[in-house]
Structure formats: structure tokens, C-alpha cells
Design goal:
There is one protein chain. The protein has 465 residues and is of the alpha/beta class. It has two domains: 2-347, Alkaline phosphatase D (PhoD) (Purple Acid Phosphatase, chain A, domain 2); 351-464, OB fold (Dihydrolipoamide Acetyltransferase, E2P), CATH 2.40.50.140. Helices cover 22% and strands 28% of the residues. The chain has twelve helices and 23 strands. The strands form four sheets. The chain has an eight-stranded mixed beta sheet, covered by helices on one side. The structure holds fe (ii) ion. Residues 64, 103-105, 259 line the site of fe (ii) ion.
């Protein structure tokens, strides 16, 4: 009876627009977001009970939310209805706001892209399922992508859900390799994943202020060694994605993905100054239920190759040394299988301290670090200093944290600068340099993956207030 009442209540709320999407601008900061993908409506979905216990403030459906696999809207609608009728899901839905994008099965056809004509009807069905208002701009868009912002100022989380189906060019196939898929990289410069309009929209969203940007992509972004669906089936498009984040200096980007019937955390470097993180949660009830060997993935940080799963993004805004972002994968019973934790300050481009205005003829460290081997004038405000154990070298850093991959160091040979620091002592000399502007002329080189310039002639350096 209780179950019947909650399902009835859900239908009632959806019909009257009460089970709507969360407001587009929600000023209250949030800190607990759950996500998942691949939920077959014809199978039990006890996982919702565990997700509900997490007290999430939002749930992100990353695609394959139902297994529709049909060009017929009536059939698709009936399958969404079936999902809504599942007791665990209907109870969850009454308590937690849902937003979502699609993948191939709720789009309507396995591994389909731009060529799938019934996508227009499929879009209406998906938007109806999520309770999107009839006058929402999402109704007029070609594709189901959307973005929301939660909180303000330093506690602002942006959620961007991409559509990797509606415009995606045809996929290139090769011979099927057992257990490795059969898709090949499509390097046609005209081939696209997002399509022109969505790329433009995405760029405007990345330019909006936010501390954390959770970007949902139904297909994996970072993993590239398997032959199934992934961004790397379109390598030029993935590079475009990474370049767009670099060019917009978008802070706090974390990718979430689904589709693969496994859980996985992948991390790589794309010259952002902070790691590219992709948390794949796939299989709300569609993952392998017995252990299997992890498939190849050179960027894997942690694997969850079996068990139904969901993901959590949690932000501790009040941690002692600044906010910490935790991303975890959990099984159907809520037990953690994999986790990646990172201070929010390490998900930031370090632009202000090292790329301020420079005088004519000089460039900032960020630009200089892209010009290995070239002789240049580099200028920046000294954020911190250090010295070698034998005191033979003095380090002048563009960032306060010298280990940061975005740090640029000017290395002075102490002996050549002895006259400068002798009167006050080396320690005191280093202290007074912090906050001063340095302009140095020399060759850009690399040390332990970071850019530097070695100077042994005082005439090559100008230090000013
Ligand atoms: Fe899929």
C-alpha cells in the first residue's frame, strides 16, 4: 500500500510539474552530489536505497538511464514509466532532485550518433521524464545538454551535462578484438562529438565563475586504451576539449562518465596545471557481478571492475586548510571501492600570481613554460624563494608552492650574486625578494617536469618593487 501511494504521488507530482528539475540558479551551496548510469528498468534497482542513505542534495543521471532501444516514442515512454514504478526509485525520486543527460540506450539505439533520426522524439521523452518545464530553452535545443549553478562566491558548484549523441559523427569501426571492442580513432577534422552549437554553448559556460565544475559526459573522457566508446574515438575532439579548458582557464574541472558497465577513476596530465580527473560510474544495476580483470587503461588511478555501483562527489567546504573534494565509487550496499581526494586549491590554474601584466618585450611564466629551449625575457612577481642544500643556488618561484606543476623558477647561481646578499645574509636577502618583480633574460629549460631559467650573470636580471 505504502509503495502504491509513493508511486501515485510521484506520478501526480510529475504531472503537475512539482517533481521538476532543481532551479537554474540555486543560491544555497551544496556539498553532496550522487551520480550513476546504466539502469535497466526491467531489473530490480535496490541501489537507490544505498544512495538515499548518502543524503545527496542532487543526483546526476549520466545516461542509459533506461534501456529503451527503440525508435518509437510510445515504447520509450512506457519504459520510463516502468522505471518510475520501481519502488526504490520512486521513493528516491520523491526525496532527491534529479537531472540528467542520455547515452545510447535511452537515445534509442546502441552506439548511435547523429544519424539516428528519432532523436527528436527521444529528446521530448527524456525531458518529460526529468520534469523539464514545457517552456524551458532545453525544449528548443538540438540535444539535451544543460548546465546549473549551485551556491555563490567561493562555494559555487557548476554542473554541466553534455550531450555526446545528438551531433556525434559516425564512429569508425575495425576488426573486433575479443574483449577489447572494435572502434578506431576517427581523425577526420570535420568529425565532431558535441557539434558546433554545443561547443559554443560549452565555452560560454566554462567562462562563467565557479569554484568546482562537474562535467558529465556519458562516454569516458580520459580512458583511451580500450576499443569501446570514448572521447578518444575522436582524438581531435578530445584535444579540443582539453584546449578549451586551458584557454578558458576553467578552474575546478572534474569529469564524470558512465556507459562502460564498470567503475573506474582515471587521471592524466593535459598541461592544465592540475590533473584531469574522470570518474566513471556505470552499472546502477548493469555492471559485471563477478570479478573480471581490469581492461587496459594507462591512466587508471583506481579500478572497480565488478559490482553494481554509483558515485559520490563530496565537498568539505570547511576543512582546516581549505576545501577538499572527494570523489568515490561505491557498490550497491554503499561500501566504498575507490576514492580520489584532492584539495580544491590543487584544482586551480595559477594565473594571477605568475601571469600578471608584463613590460613590453617580456612574457609571463605560463607562456614561457610552453617555449622550451628558447631564449626569452620572463617577468613575474616573486611568490616564494628557496635555496639548494649546499646554498650554491637560489630559487625564485612564480608560485608560493614550488612543487606545483605550474610553478616557474628562476635559478640564480649564488656565487655570482654574492655582492647582492652578502651585507644582509642569504636568508634575509631571500625574504625581501618575495613580492618584488623580477625580469630575467635566458633560456627556458625543464627540471623535473617544470619550467625554469638558470642565470649566472647578474646583468641578466632586473629586480624592482
Ligand atoms: Fe552506453
Amino acid at each position: 500500500m505504502k509503495r502504491f501511494v509513493s508511486i501515485l504521488l510521484l506520478h501526480f507530482m510529475i504531472s503537475f510539474g512539482w517533481a521538476d528539475e532543481p532551479p537554474l540558479k540555486n543560491n544555497a551551496s551544496i556539498s553532496r552530489i550522487a551520480f550513476g548510469s546504466c539502469a535497466h528498468q526491467d531489473r530490480p534497482q535496490p541501489v537507490w536505497n544505498s544512495i538515499l542513505k548518502e543524503n545527496p542534495e542532487l543526483f546526476l543521471f549520466l545516461g542509459d538511464n533506461i534501456y529503451a532501444d527503440t525508435p518509437l516514442k510510445e515504447v520509450m515512454r512506457a519504459k520510463y514509466k516502468k522505471l518510475n514504478s520501481l519502488p526504490e526509485f520512486s521513493k528516491f525520486r520523491l526525496k532527491v532532485p534529479l537531472v540528467g543527460t542520455w547515452d545510447d540506450h535511452d537515445y534509442g539505439q546502441n552506439d548511435a550518433g547523429v544519424e539516428f533520426a528519432p532523436k527528436v522524439d527521444a529528446q521530448t521523452e527524456l525531458l518529460d521524464f526529468f520534469g523539464v518545464a514545457k517552456d524551458s530553452p532545453r525544449r528548443d535545443r538540438k540535444g539535451v545538454y544543460e548546465a546549473w549553478t549551485f551556491g555563490e562566491g567561493d562555494k559555487c558548484i557548476q554542473v554541466i551535462l553534455l550531450d555526446t549523441r545528438y551531433h556525434r559523427s559516425s564512429i569508425k569501426t575495425g576488426p573486433r578484438i575479443p574483449n577489447k571492442g572494435n572502434y578506431l580513432p576517427n581523425t577526420d577534422p570535420e568529425a565532431t562529438v558535441l557539434g558546433k552549437e554545443q561547443w559554443n554553448w560549452f565555452e560560454t559556460k566554462l567562462k562563467e565563475p565557479a569554484s568546482i565544475r562537474i562535467i558529465g559526459s556519458s562516454i569516458q573522457v580520459v580512458s583511451e586504451d580500450h576499443g569501446w566508446e570514448k572521447w578518444m574515438n575522436f582524438p581531435l575532439e578530445r584535444e579540443r576539449l582539453y584546449k578549451l579548458v586551458r584557454d578558458t582557464n576553467a578552474n575546478g574541472v572534474v569529469f564524470l562518465s558512465g556507459d562502460r558497465h564498470l567503475g573506474e577513476i582515471s587521471v592524466m596530465d593535459a598541461n592544465w596545471g592540475y590533473p584531469v580527473i574522470d570518474i566513471t560510474s556505470s552499472g546502477l544495476n548493469q555492471a559485471n557481478t563477478t570479478w573480471r580483470r581490469e581492461e587496459p587503461n594507462r591512466h587508471r588511478f583506481a579500478a572497480m571492475p565488478w559490482e553494481h555501483n554509483y558515485g559520490m562527489v563530496e565537498v568539505d567546504w570547511n576543512a582546516k586548510n581549505g576545501p577538499i573534494v572527494s570523489m568515490s565509487l561505491k557498490n550497491e550496499e554503499g561500501k566504498t571501492a575507490a576514492c580520489y581526494r584532492i584539495p580544491l586549491k590543487n584544482l586551480q590554474f595559477k594565473v594571477p600570481a605568475n601571469d600578471g601584466p608584463v613590460s613590453p618585450g617580456a612574457i609571463g611564466p605560463r607562456e614561457a613554460s610552453k617555449k622550451m629551449g628558447e631564449r626569452l625575457n620572463v617577468e613575474f612577481e616573486i611568490a616564494s624563494t628557496g635555496q639548494s642544500r649546499d646554498k650554491a643556488r637560489i630559487f625564485l618561484n612564480s608560485l608560493s608552492e614550488f612543487r606545483d606543476p605550474a610553478n616557474f623558477t628562476i635559478v640564480l647561481q649564488s656565487k655570482a650574486f654574492e655582492d647582492s646578499w652578502k651585507a644582509v645574509g642569504l636568508e634575509n636577502y631571500r625574504k625581501v625578494l618575495v613580492g618584488k618583480k623580477i625580469r630575467a633574460s635566458g633560456v627556458i629549460s625543464e627540471f623535473q617536469g617544470k619550467a625554469q631559467m638558470e642565470i649566472d650573470d647578474p646583468k641578466s636580471v632586473l629586480i624592482s618593487e
